[in-house]
């Protein structure tokens, strides 16, 4: 039951992009096409889950026993940066097409605050390892969900006749705002 | 003249938020009020300036292949410093900004300036560039924070402008952040055209 609460809360109620403002850069940057959005969502999901497990272990079995909890930020970012590098190498080998499509945004996962944010939130919420994994996966699902819905809307937006100043980022942000409004409707479920 | 240009470009022409669309997460996440926006902006400015200065000092020592991880570690150290000092000296602001203070480390502006400017220029220009960009970022955050605070709760910097009934609470909540920023950028685009 507890896990269902964590999942619903992370995917819908406190959606990582639309309610907590983490991972906005890829949300705006790679949401032009549904396929790239799916790819990015998958890459983030993969990195986020592994990063959460690894940072959890690093925090509770290395940093805290040594009494250097204040090194958290520095250590976490290094762990995440190396993980991203690894995913990049694997992806280049396994799926060159996807690697091409994600292009510049793959290294940018390092500076995707969603990954670091989730890793830090786990510690703040004092989850155990299993809860952490569930939390990370549901946040990744929430991220992918928001990204894919948004990409779908943006594909149709290309056909709309807009005032010049509103083209590009401004209209994307306003649409994101309306999407966030829709997601606010989930408040109260948990 | 050149230095002046380095300093002022961050405000309008290359404003990190309104023009380059960098650092959107803290921009949207911390601007529930003007004072929060300003606090976040200044914290980021400190990290930007110190990061830029140190990186331009050591740019010749670091091998090109490992430069990005090295930059991240340098930036992360300053972020930890800001995090701990804010927790000590400004606990209420620190509680409001919460997660977004450690997240300065993944703010694209900081790493972006390190890579695009500090790794190629002298210590002096890097300092000026960091300061200009940081203040431009603070300006953007304060502006967005002020707009959201005025529309959302009828106040600015805690000063009441309207009676409480006129407040549109939606602007303090998440959707308002996106919508307000969208319209500010649209207005900026319009002004830039002229």
Architecture overview:
The complex is a heterodimer of chains A (190) and B (194). Chain A has one domain. Chain A is 73% helix and 0% strand. Chain A has helices at residues 2-13, 24-29, 34-66, 72-94, 96-102, 113-124, 129-157, 169-184. In chain A, α1 (2-13) packs parallel to α7, α3 crosses α6 (113-124) and α4 crosses α6. Chain B has 194 residues and is mainly alpha-helical. Chain B has helices at residues 2-8, 24-29, 34-58, 67-89, 91-97, 108-118, 123-153, 174-193, and strands at 155-156, 159-160. A two-stranded antiparallel sheet of chain B has the order 1-2. In chain B, α1 runs parallel beside α7 and α3 packs parallel to α6 (108-118). The mean pLDDT of chain B is 86. Classes of the chains: A mainly alpha (190), B mainly alpha (194). The interface between A and B is large, with 43 and 42 residues.
Oligomer: heterodimer
- Count of distinct strands of chain A: 0
* Inertia-based shape of chain A: globular
- What is the helix fraction of residues of chain B, given as a range? 55-70%
Task: Report the helical percentage of chain A.
Answer: over 70%
The unreliable regions of chain B are none
Give the number of helices of chain A: 8
Distinct helical segment count of chain B: 8
Q: Largest interface, and how many residues on either side? A: A-B, 43 and 42 residues
| Total number of distinct structural domains of chain B | 1
Q: Give the tally of structural domains of chain A.
A: 1
Query: SSE string of chain A, helix = H, strand = E?
Result: HHHHHHHH
Question: What fraction of residues of chain B sit in β-strands?
Answer: under 5%
| Class inferred from helices and paired strands of chain B | mainly alpha
Whole-number average pLDDT of chain B? Answer: 86
CA(first)-CA(last) distance of chain A: 12 Å
Helix/strand order of chain B = HHHHHHHEEH
* First-last Cα distance of chain B: 24 Å
- What's the Cα radius of gyration of chain A? 17 Å
